[in-house]
Amino acid sequence: MNQSTETNRPAAITFACTAGFVWAALSIPLIFFSSTKTIGTWYPPYLAFTVLASFASVYGIWIQKRWGFYGYIAFNVINQVVLISMGMWTLFSILIPAIVIGVSYKHLKELN
């Protein structure tokens, strides 16, 4: 059988998910930096969890599932609260998540 692998995924979702995947991938080395361990012994495992949660949620958006969108929002709200409470929040820490959330929200009706 020769099945087509075409998708109805909007180009904006593809772009946003690619940015989300790259953002998560760039965070992986931070787990192993010694400066990350100085924040607290709990922070490297938390960072590993956020990377995994980000990959899972962005994958959900990639395959056009609403659970990916809602999971990404929940994970990022928690992450932003943690960053603010630690005094580590910057505008850059919300930039990529805001793009992914905004684009996904625009196409929410197309997600099942």
Task: Tell me what the structure shows.
The structure is a single chain. α4 packs antiparallel against α5 (92-106). With 112 residues, the protein is mostly helical. The model has no long low-confidence stretch (mean pLDDT 88). The two termini are 27 Å apart. The protein is elongated, with a radius of gyration of 15 Å. The chain has 5 helices and no strands. Keywords: Membrane, Transmembrane, Transmembrane helix. The chain crosses the membrane at residues 12-33, 45-62, 82-105.
Any key phrases for this structure?
mainly alpha, 112 residues, 0% strand, 5 helices
Strand and helix map with partners:
Layout: H1 11-27, H2 34-39, H3 43-62, H4 66-85, H5 92-106
Order of helices and strands: HHHHH
Are there runs of 5+ residues with pLDDT below 50, and where?
none
Reported for the largest beta sheet, the result is: none
Structural class: mainly alpha
Number of helices: 5
Helix-residue proportion: 55-70%
Mean pLDDT comes to 88
Q: What kind of assembly state do the chains in view correspond to?
A: single chain
Approximate strand percentage: under 5%
